[in-house]
Design brief:
Blueprint lengths: L10 E6 L2 H12 L2 E5 L6 E4 L4 E6 L3 H7 L15 E5 L3 H10 L3 E8 L5 E6 L5 E5 L4
Parallel strand pairs: 1-4, 5-8
Antiparallel strand pairs: 2-3, 3-4, 6-7, 7-8
């Protein structure tokens, strides 16, 4: 019998410089549908299967005082402590679309020893995005 306290993974929040720009970028570069961008431009959401990808500003007073400041990497030799991962049936085409729409190429898709094709890009905030085929 499942407990009514069993959690459902609802969404991941990605802290970005400009919510509206990031929502538009992810929709165009990675093929997501925009679920919502509020009028304040301080919250945006994308449709992504059962889990929502949400965006909010890296600098905000509502949570900085409660949970601390978001740490932004200071160089390309550092990266955010999150990696966004998407599965695609055609990783090569998805990678090409992402790069053509502003993603920074990091590593072109290649077959991995565990049977997955994987490529990496960075989004407009420098966040690493892993683009891979579904692992069977």
């Amino acid at each position: 019998m499942a407990s009514n306290l069993s959690p459902v993974y609802a969404y991941t929040v990605v802290y970005v410089k400009d919510v509206a720009k990031s929502v538009a970028f992810y929709a165009k570069a990675f093929g997501h549908q925009v679920r919502r961008l509020d009028d304040s431009r301080r919250w945006g959401e994308l449709e992504s299967g059962q889990t929502t990808i949400a965006f909010t500003p890296a600098r905000q007073h509502e949570t900085d005082d409660l949970t601390g400041e978001v740490q932004i990497p200071r160089s390309t030799h550092q990266r955010n402590p999150i990696e966004v991962c998407f599965d695609y049936s055609d990783v090569d085409a998805a990678y090409k679309r992402a790069v053509e729409n502003g993603a920074e190429a990091v590593s072109a898709p290649e077959e991995k020893e565990w049977g997955q094709k994987v490529g990496y890009v960075r989004d407009i905030d420098g966040i690493v995005v892993r683009m891979g085929s579904h692992v069977r």
